[in-house]
Specification:
Elements lengths: L10 E5 L4 H12 L3 E9 L13 H11 L3 E5 L5 H16 L3 E3 L6 H13 L3 E3 L7 H11 L2 E8 L3 H4 L6 H9 L11 E7 L7 E11 L2 E11 L1
């Protein structure tokens, strides 16, 4: 069952990876008259990269500024992830006065169960605007909206084909040729949105290096700027 349409009284925190799914979920919530107040990202225990996509704090801060919202962080191991997540949700709810959480998951039930669990623990209602929609249709909707999603990490076997490229129709064909899920839902790749309808200004990536670790390759973005 899809989520009901938020009302004008719906204010929300968006669980923020910086990638295309959280971005599209965020934008859909905006289109349904929900009010965004803060973005929320979990970093690794060193605090230098996001747990989900391996994006640096500096780049996520720059991205949030391009969108025009504050972004909050916690640092956590996987072992303490849930406890720290709930504690931070409660703190941010008091600070920012929101009543909903928005997540970008599409069809993995265990993810939805967890998101509803942690939201309920903080007396919040979880919204999943993309839930149970066709993955390929969502990616083409993103393109139609003008969302520019840069592939910032992927399995090393795919790096020479997709890493550092912005998703477009040609890259979608490459995904299909390589038998990559078009949304990357099996962990084949992750993205960073550098421009789109929720941006007030584009995020410009000046330079990056490609690094690999344990079968995964990623862009180490050295610096970023924005107009």
């Amino acid at each position: 069952m899809k989520n009901t349409k938020p009302t004008h009284s719906c204010s929300f925190l968006c669980s923020w990876s910086g990638g295309k799914d959280s971005y599209l979920a965020f934008y859909r919530a905006l289109q349904r008259n929900a009010k965004p107040v803060v973005l929320f990202n979990v970093m690794n225990e060193l605090g230098d990269r996001s747990r989900s996509h391996g994006i640096s704090r500096e780049v996520l801060l720059a991205q949030a500024e391009c969108i025009g919202l504050p972004i909050e962080f916690i640092e956590s191991t996987w072992q303490d992830y849930e406890t720290n997540y709930i504690e931070k949700l409660k703190q941010l709810k008091t600070e920012y006065q929101f009543n909903h959480t928005v997540f970008g998951d599409i069809d993995i039930q265990s993810h939805r169960d967890w998101e509803e669990k942690v939201s309920e623990a903080a007396t919040l209602k979880a919204l999943l605007p993309l839930w149970q929609e066709d993955r390929e249709a969502l990616v083409f909707e993103m393109l139609k909206l003008g969302v520019k999603a840069l592939v910032v990490s992927c399995r090393t076997e795919f790096a020479s084909y997709i890493l550092g490229k912005v998703i477009d129709e040609e890259l979608i064909q490459v995904f299909q040729d390589l038998d990559i899920d078009v949304c990357g839902e099996n962990g084949e790749y992750h993205t960073l949105v550098i421009d789109g309808p929720a941006h007030k200004k584009p995020l410009l990536i000046d330079s990056f290096e490609i690094q690999s670790n344990k079968g995964y390759s990623f862009l180490d973005i050295r610096k970023s700027k924005w107009r």
